[in-house]
Structure formats: structure tokens, C-alpha cells
Write a structure and sequence with these properties.
The complex is a heterodimer of chains A (97) and B (380). By secondary structure, chain A is α+β, with helices and mostly antiparallel strands. Chain A has a single domain, classed as Arc Repressor Mutant, subunit A. Chain A has three helices and six strands. Chain A is globular, with a radius of gyration of 13 Å. The two termini of chain A are 25 Å apart. With 380 residues, chain B is an alpha/beta fold. In chain B, 34% of the residues lie in helices and 13% in strands. Chain B is built from 15 helices and ten strands. Chain B has a nine-stranded mixed sheet with strand order 8-7-6-5-4-3-2-9-10. In chain B, 47% of the residues are buried. Classes of the chains: A alpha+beta (97), B alpha/beta (380). At the A-B interface, strand 2, strand 3, strand 4 and helix 3 of A face strand 1 of B. Strand 4 of chain A pairs antiparallel with strand 1 of chain B. The structure holds S-adenosylmethionine (SAM) and iron/sulfur cluster (2 copies). The site of S-adenosylmethionine (SAM) has 19 residues of chain B, from strand 3, strand 4 and strand 6.
């Protein structure tokens, strides 16, 4: 586990251009496709990555998710940032300057 | 690397995820480890553009996500761009697997425009003389130039280096070359000993000491490069004592179509004699995948023999490779003899010992070339 998440709430994340991210009907899930690989994402991961368009700040992304899942736990801020940190380490997303 | 549980286990839920099209067996290079059939020059009736289009459509309907265009040299076909355009329309992640020969700037641009997602380029050495000796013709300069243009066009690039005794000691220099070329993925590909590679196995098999040295170099490079470059390197099954989880199991997620339309659970499956492989020329991909006897033959566990049948690793490696089991033991349902628990493991140990025997008479490499050998008396 990353010790301290370095994701800042004002940052805007986008899918790394080496990855293809899209909804796959046959899997009923979002998938990430890349050379020699396929990742099928769970619902939350898919919903977070769907918002990584480079246009939305992390704080807006969290607010948006809270609106979509009003009954989600209060720890949403921390878990979204932890997920983005992990996705960043895997090279799936990158911060737009 | 942080773990987060965001990934869900992906299997095809009974459907194929990877569709590999071997568009042609034609190729201007002559690699002595080529995994194309020994009688590659006997395959004359390649599928037409229309037929490949139908294959891609049906594959997508079955749920395939990744598409590989390979061969032979796929660029020998003039319709690669047309096929890529259709693949993009269908929603595949499309991979071109190429030696680089024939990939001129116009075609590269056309492939970019039609939506090709990534290119896997093979290179055999960081040294022109060795590279060209290994592929039997002048190719190194072209490959380097192609590598640079692939990056200039913004494609993610896998550099595939087939690993053999002759090039493995160059690992540090190959790593440096890949770094200089801004390669995204460097794949040290262990040779799979079928077809031409099997013919030349004694000359190609690296030694354990060579592999151990390369492993140290790779570990250092991974430390240094972090996520800038992903490096694939694994100990080959001949030295590992454990078989590879070949194809994730027979008929599990991989679907290969040979140039003549023969449908295969893996590229090498025709080394297993006596099996009737269906053709896309007279059957749908759906029937072939779901119902054909050959694709069902080694699914599940009922076909397994001891020790696989009761081994706790059987869900991890599926008893190894059916083709290797057939080739080295004469029965495709035996455990893969690369496994140290296999009663036939001695054949692999002997092959390793012979290839490493001191004072061994070095034989010339037989290059992949029409007419170099005849299979007429080999029970083909
Ligand atoms: C058969 S080739 C076809 C594409 C193209 N002609 C090329 O060589 O790049 C596909 C890939 O398999 C690799 N390859 C060929 N023979 C092999 C073998 N016996 N074992 C493992 N990889 C092999 C090549 O290096 C290449 O990356
Ligand atoms: S491995 Fe070599 S000989 Fe075989 S198809 Fe590729 S480039 Fe041609
Ligand atoms: S005995 Fe069979 S299942 Fe067990 S490790 Fe060996 S090949 Fe795999």
C-alpha cells in the first residue's frame, strides 16, 4: 500500500494514452486494454476512471461520485485518492500538468 | 506497487478474449527458431480480405477483445490497413506483430489513421552483424529505423527479442538499446521449441548460467527504469521444472486462425498429429469454439492423467502445454514433460544436458527457408 497518497485534489487526471478504456458489453464492465493485456474493472474503479478525462479535478470527481452514490461511506475522499494513486503507479492514468 | 482490488478476475466466461490472425506464412526473413510450420511453403490458399473480415466479426460477437495480426510477415499482405480499419470499427484493441520489413512510412501512417493500437516489433540483437546473421538477411538497419518511426507516430511499442544462446549475453546492451528507442515494453521471449526452433534446439538453448546472468541484468534495469519501460523476462520452462500455463488452458481464452483458415486453440497445435482442426471456411467461429470436438478435447480436467489429475497446481498451469506433451512424449494428454513431476521429465533434462555438453560438436543452424528441409518422410 502506498504510505501517503500523493494525489492532490486540484489535479486533473486522464487515462494514459497508451491505454484504451471503454465499456465492454460482453463483460458488462469497463475494461482497460493495452499491449498484451486486458483489465476488467469493478464498478467503482470504472466509475472513477470514466471521469478521468483530463477535464475534471479530483475534488469535482469526488463530488460527482458522492452525488451518484449518496449512501457511500464518508471515507470516499481517501479511497478515491488511494485508487488514483494506485492507478497512477500502474501507469493507467496520469496527471495533466 | 499499491494494490487496490479494482481489478476483477477476467476470464472469457467460456468465450475467447484473444483472437490471433496469422495472415500469411510468407516472410522475407529466415529465423532459425521460427514457430511457423516446417512446411510453411505448402500453404498457398490464404483467406481473402472478405473472409478475414468475417472472422473478425464473428470473433467480436463471441466477446474477443484483443486482436493480433501476425504471420509470417503480416505486412506482406496489402490489405492490413483495410483489416485494421474494420477491427477498429468492431471495437478490438488491435496489435500488429511484425518484423518491421515492409512497414514504410506511408503504410505506418495509414495504420495510424485506421486506428491500429500498438505495434510489436521483433529484433534479434543490438548488433547489426549478429542480428542479420540470425535472420539470414540484412534487416537490422531497417528494424532500427522502423522502431524510431513507430515511436514518432505515437504508437505504444513492444520490442520482442527472441532469446537464444547466441544473443542472450547481450542483454545489458539490448536493454540500453530499448531504452534509447523509448520502447514501452521489452519482451525477452523464451523460444518455444516447436517447428524450426525444435529442429535447431540443441544450438539455440541457452545455458542456465547465461539465463542467470541475464536475470541479474534485467533486475537491475527494472530498478533503474521503473514504470518507464516494462520488461518481461521469465525463466524458460526447460530450466524451471514447472510448465508454463500454456494459453491459459486449451480452448480457454485464445483463438488462432492460420493463413488457410484452420482454427487452432494455439499457434502450434498442428504439431499434434491425428487431430482434425476445423476451418473457418466451412464452419462458424461460434461452432468451432463451442462445439467442435477438437476445441473441447483438453478443456476442463477430465482428460488429465496422473500426476496432474490429483496435483494442486492443476488449476494454475492446466498440466502445461499439450503440444509439448505430444511432441516429447507422443501423447498430448500426458503431463507436460517440462514439469519435474512428470514421469517423462528426463527427456527435457537430457535435452538440456546435450545442449550444454562440454566438447559437443556444434551443428550449423538450419534457417527457415522453403526447400531447406523436406517433411515428406516425417509422417506429415
Ligand atoms: C512468428 S512471428 C510473426 C511476426 C513477424 N514475422 C516477426 O517475427 O516479428 C511472431 C513473434 O513470435 C516470435 N517468435 C518466433 N518464433 C518463436 C519461437 N519459436 N518461440 C517464441 N517466440 C517466437 C517472433 O520473434 C515474433 O515476435
Ligand atoms: S519469426 Fe522470423 S522467419 Fe518467422 S515469420 Fe517472423 S520474421 Fe519471419
Ligand atoms: S503434475 Fe501436472 S498439474 Fe502438477 S505441476 Fe506438473 S504439469 Fe502442473
Amino acid at each position: 500500500m502506498a504510505d501517503e497518497t500523493r494525489v492532490q485534489i486540484e489535479e486533473r487526471y486522464e487515462i494514459h494514452p497508451q491505454f484504451l478504456f471503454r465499456w465492454e458489453p460482453s463483460q458488462e464492465a469497463y475494461v482497460l486494454l493495452y499491449p498484451e493485456g486486458i483489465v476488467k474493472l469493478n464498478q467503482t474503479a470504472g466509475e472513477i476512471l470514466r471521469r478521468c478525462t483530463g477535464r475534471m479535478s479530483v475534488s469535482d470527481l469526488i463530488a460527482d461520485l458522492k452525488a451518484m452514490f449518496p449512501e457511500a461511506d464518508a471515507d470516499m475522499d481517501r479511497s478515491v485518492r488511494a485508487f488514483l494513486e494506485a492507478a497512477n503507479a500502474k501507469g493507467w492514468v496520469r496527471s495533466k500538468a | 506497487m499499491p494494490k487496490d482490488g479494482s481489478e476483477v478476475r477476467l476470464d472469457g466466461q467460456g468465450n475467447p478474449l484473444w483472437l490471433l490472425l496469422e495472415l500469411t506464412y510468407r516472410c522475407p526473413l529466415k529465423c532459425a527458431w521460427c514457430n511457423n510450420p516446417l512446411d510453411f511453403d505448402h500453404y498457398r490458399n490464404e483467406l481473402t480480405t472478405e473472409e478475414w473480415m468475417r472472422v473478425m466479426r464473428e470473433g467480436r460477437e463471441l466477446g474477443a477483445l484483443q486482436l493480433g495480426l501476425s504471420g509470417g510477415e503480416p505486412m506482406m499482405r496489402r490489405d492490413v490497413e483495410t483489416l485494421v480499419a474494420e477491427a477498429s470499427r468492431l471495437g478490438y484493441y488491435t496489435n500488429l506483430i511484425t518484423s518491421g520489413i515492409g512497414l514504410d512510412s506511408d503504410r505506418l501512417q495509414a495504420l495510424k489513421d485506421t486506428g491500429l493500437n500498438q505495434i510489436q516489433l521483433s529484433i534479434q540483437s543490438c548488433d547489426e552483424a549478429l542480428n542479420d546473421e540470425l535472420v539470414g538477411t540484412r534487416a537490422f538497419e531497417v528494424k532500427l529505423d522502423v522502431a524510431r518511426r513507430i515511436k514518432a507516430h505515437g504508437f505504444p511499442m513492444v520490442l520482442n527479442v527472441p532469446v537464444c544462446r547466441q544473443n542472450i549475453d547481450q542483454a545489458p546492451k539490448i536493454l540500453a538499446m530499448a531504452e534509447e528507442l523509448s520502447v514501452d515494453y521489452l519482451e525477452f521471449a523464451n523460444l518455444q521449441y516447436y517447428n524450426w526452433a525444435m529442429l535447431n534446439r540443441e544450438e539455440l538453448l541457452p545455458s542456465r548460467a547465461q539465463l542467470q546472468r541475464a536475470e541479474v541484468d534485467v533486475r537491475a534495469a527494472r530498478q533503474r527504469l521503473g514504470k518507464r519501460m516494462t520488461i518481461y523476462f521469465v525463466v524458460p520452462d526447460y530450466y524451471d521444472g514447472r510448465p508454463k500455463a500454456c494459453m491459459n488452458g486449451w480452448g480457454s481464452i485464445h483463438f488462432t486462425i492460420a493463413p488457410d483458415g484452420t482454427a487452432l486453440p494455439c499457434q502450434e497445435a498442428r504439431v499434434i498429429k491425428g487431430l482434425a482442426f476445423p476451418s473457418v471456411r466451412n464452419a462458424s467461429l461460434e461452432w468451432i469454439w463451442k462445439d467442435s470436438p477438437t476445441f473441447n478435447l483438453f478443456r476442463g480436467e477430465a482428460w488429465m492423467k496422473e500426476p496432474c489429475r490429483t496435483c494442486s497446481d492443476r488449476t494454475r498451469d492446466f498440466g502445461g502445454c499439450r503440444c509439448q506433451a505430444f511432441m516429447l512424449t507422443g501423447d498430448a494428454s500426458n503431463p507436460d514433460p517440462a514439469c519435474s513431476l512428470s514421469p517423462h521429465h528426463y527427456v527435457v533434462r537430457e535435452a538440456v544436458a546435450e545442449a550444454n555438453a562440454p566438447g559437443r560438436w556444434p551443428r550449423p543452424l538450419v534457417r527457415r527457408q522453403a526447400g531447406a528441409i523436406t517433411t515428406a518422410f516425417a509422417g506429415e
